[in-house]
Write a structure and sequence with these properties.
By secondary structure, the protein is an alpha/beta fold. It has helices at about 1-10, 15-40, 60-75, 90-100, 120-130, 165-170, 180-190, 210-230, 235-245, 250-255, 265-275, 300-310, 315-320, 325-330, 335-360, 370-385, 395-420, 425-430; strands at about 45-55, 80-85, 105-110, 115-120, 130-135, 140, 250, 260-265, 280, 285, 295, 435-440, 445-450, 450-455, 465-475, 475-480.
Length: about 500
């Protein structure tokens, strides 16, 4: 029995089962080997490229500060900021610099492409970066702070002002000739002795309020950029001259002066040169590994791009001046009355057109006032600006088309609201249709608009008959039988 059972069990093991088992074991070993290789292979290092292209404005500052913080939190290997800026607002500049100083990830600024610049606020940002680089044929500097709406005064408030010659003449008047005058002067000195003065020391005249304010701003800016230079080991003396004297240098000069760390042709050249460099970040020293770095370019959001475009001084000036271009031209050219008159008349036409469009919504002019208003609005918009800045007819047409569509919807809503008649009261229920609920002889109960009413008629009716309200007598409806075609049908011919 034992021998037979063994033979039967041995016959159940087929060659296919053996091959399947070997295949499964091989697949498992291959998977484990691949998993081990993947675990042993280091993850590719990643970095980001950000852009500062244009003025240093609040939208640009929000974009850079946000992405620098995000890259730092994500543990990115490197942050590269491509710079081409004429400068900008101090507050926005400091927002960017604070984000760079607080970053655990090294930040490299790169003035690029060739022909770009990093002036004014851009220089401060370069000085705050862990790595500062420039492309050939670029420049930087001119970091003197300037108030919005005005330029610096011609005199340097930081220079010592010597006493004027007039003051010397007053302090040390020349002796006058004549005995009477001499005697009078002697009596005066005897009665009122001359106050003591320190004649051995030159005194500087006090600064005016405007010069004192400008001096404070310049000194504060000098201290700020020197602090950044000392933190990054860059040329602090030249930075001070860039603030006080608005000097600028080329990329080659900046490298010789110790303003930047290197000159790179492009991003790849930059990554090659900074590979292995050690920088001090907010979390300590870090060695940059950029040999096989995978870079991701992160652009500002659409809202930030739009706000940045509007924040451009050139665009902002155009937007602010378009509405009163004719009047401004009149002030620029005294005597040329025509541009000013055209501007005023155009604004008046647009105002009248807007008023007529609004009146169309509230008065039964059947579109006459609205169409006239739209025409006046379009003509005024076209002639409001001079020919060089004239609004495109297609833009005007689009605006008028949208306004016309809105006006049409308003007109349609008004017509619809007036067509259904009264909504409440006896007039509202008259001519409505209903269904007989109960009827006895010539009176009974009907249902009209979901409500049960007492009703009377001129002939007997049956429950379910369609009726029309012809009159309201107090709380009793006077009804007649309607056509069998439905609630919307008219009265039968014999009852019409």
């Amino acid at each position: 029995m034992i021998t037979a059972r063994f033979q039967r069990n041995s016959r159940q093991i087929r060659p296919a089962d053996i091959f399947a088992g070997l295949f499964a074991i091989g697949a498992a070993m291959f998977g484990l080997s691949a998993l081990a290789q993947n675990a042993a292979a280091p993850a590719a290092k990643q970095g980001v490229i950000l852009t500062l292209n244009g003025p240093v404005s609040p939208p640009a500052a929000d974009y850079l500060a946000r992405e620098i913080a995000a890259a730092s939190d994500a543990g990115k290997e490197l942050i590269i900021i491509e710079i081409d800026t004429p400068g900008g607002l101090v507050d926005s500049m400091k927002t960017i610099i604070k984000a760079i100083l607080a970053s655990d990830t090294p930040v490299a600024t790169f003035v690029s492409p060739q022909g770009a610049r990093s002036a004014s606020a851009g220089l401060y940002i370069m000085y705050s970066a862990h790595i500062s680089a420039m492309a050939p044929a670029t420049n930087t500097g001119a970091a003197t702070p300037i108030e919005i709406g005005g330029g610096p005064s011609e005199d340097n408030p930081l220079e010592d002002k010597k006493p004027s010659d007039d003051a010397d003449e007053v302090t040390n008047p020349e002796p006058t000739s004549g005995g009477d005058a001499a005697e009078e002067d002697e009596d005066t000195r005897t009665s009122a002795p001359e106050p003591l003065q320190d004649r051995g020391r030159d005194t500087a005249a006090p600064l005016s309020s405007d010069d004192a304010l400008r001096a404070k701003v310049i000194n504060d800016s000098v201290a700020y950029i020197r602090a950044l230079a000392e933190e990054r080991g860059r040329n602090a003396d030249w930075a001070e001259s860039a603030v006080r004297e608005a000097v600028s240098v080329t990329a080659n000069q900046a490298l010789e002066l110790g303003v930047i760390d290197l000159i790179a042709d492009d991003i790849d050249d930059l990554l090659t040169q900074i590979d292995g460099k050690t920088v001090a970040t907010a979390s300590g020293e870090k060695v940059i590994a950029s040999a096989e770095l995978k870079l991701e370019r992160i652009e500002p959001t659409m809202v930030e791009k739009i706000l940045g475009f509007i924040a451009n001084p050139n665009v902002a000036v155009i937007l602010m001046s378009l509405g009163t271009t004719g009047i401004i031209i009149e002030m620029w050219n005294p005597g040329s009355i025509f541009p000013g008159v055209v501007g005023v008349v155009s604004l008046a036409l647009m105002g009248i057109g807007a008023v007529l469009i609004v009146l169309e919504a509230y008065t039964p002019t059947f579109g006459v006032a609205g169409l006239t208003g739209m025409a006046l609005f379009g003509v005024g918009m076209y002639f409001l600006f001079p020919e060089s800045l004239r609004v495109s007819p297609s833009v005007i047409g689009t605006i008028l088309a949208v306004a016309g569509a809105l006006l049409g919807l308003i007109f349609y809503a008004l017509v619809a609201s007036r067509s259904h008649g009264p909504m409440i009261g006896a007039d509202a229920i008259r001519k409505r249709e209903g269904v007989v609920d109960e009827w006895d002889g010539k009176d009974g109960w009907v249902i009209v608009e979901g409500e049960r009413w007492r009703a009377r008629g001129d002939k007997p009716l049956q429950p379910g008959d369609k009726v029309r309200v012809v009159e309201v007598d107090g709380l009793v409806l006077v009804v007649k039988q309607a056509k069998a075609g439905g609630l919307l049908g008219g009265l039968q011919p014999s009852q019409a």
